[in-house]
Amino acid sequence: MDAHDFTIGFTVDQTPDAVFAAICDVRRWWSADITGRAERVGDRFIHRVRELHRCEIEVKQMVPGSRIVWTVLDNHFSFTSDATEWTGTDIVFEITKSGDETRLRFTHLGLVPAYECYTVCSDGWNTYIASLRDLVANGEGRPYVGEARTASEQALMAPAQDPR
């Protein structure tokens, strides 16, 4: 892991198995529009945010209650010069138990500050990992459901302003 890869985490009172199960339920914390599955190694799913972002992800590794790794097979951003910035990157969820609490460490390996999408993507991950935490802690995530959730999404989805 490079020190510059995007990383965020949280701690909850629930079990590692509860955190693991919530991660696999991507429609309840990331996007209700996801197609495909994320429950077993080899599963693939597609995440879309209007015409702004589309990516295909494959589940690469699963260690129940401990670790999940996804690989981005294909990516398209409409708002960057290199539309494929995420292609070939890994998204890693590491779950550890500490006393009565469970810690999740989320790292998007290869999502680095040098990427043009970094600000938008880190804003998104901060929002959706908080949604994952809410799903684990309260049973209700706050996934993308067609409307902008982050300031970055709002700016990118805003209609072009008439310069007059």
UniProtKB/TrEMBL annotation:
<dbReference type="InterPro" id="IPR023393">
    <property type="entry name" value="START-like_dom_sf"/>
</dbReference>
<feature type="domain" description="Activator of Hsp90 ATPase homologue 1/2-like C-terminal">
    <location>
        <begin position="15"/>
        <end position="136"/>
    </location>
</feature>
<comment type="similarity">
    <text>Belongs to the AHA1 family.</text>
</comment>
<dbReference type="Pfam" id="PF08327">
    <property type="entry name" value="AHSA1"/>
</dbReference>
<dbReference type="InterPro" id="IPR013538">
    <property type="entry name" value="ASHA1/2-like_C"/>
</dbReference>
<protein>
    <submittedName>
        <fullName>SRPBCC domain-containing protein</fullName>
    </submittedName>
</protein>
